[in-house]
Amino acid sequence: MTPTHALRLPPKPPARPAVDARWLGVLFVLGAVACFSGLDTASKAIGAMPVMMLVWFRYATQASATALTQWPSRGRALLRTRHPWLHALRGLLILSTSVCTNLALRAMPVGELTAIVMLTPLLMTLVGATFLHERVSPARWGLIAAAFCGALLVARPGATMLSWGLLMALLALALNTGFHLVTSRLSRTEDVGTMQFLTGCTGALAATLVLPFFWTSLGSWTTWALLALVCVFSTAGHWMLIVGYAKAGIATLTPLLYAQVAFSTLLGWLVFAHVPDALALAGIAVITLAGAACTWLSAREREQARGLAALEDASMEH
Question: Which Pfam families does the record match to this protein (predicted)?
Answer without folding.
Answer: EamA (PF00892)
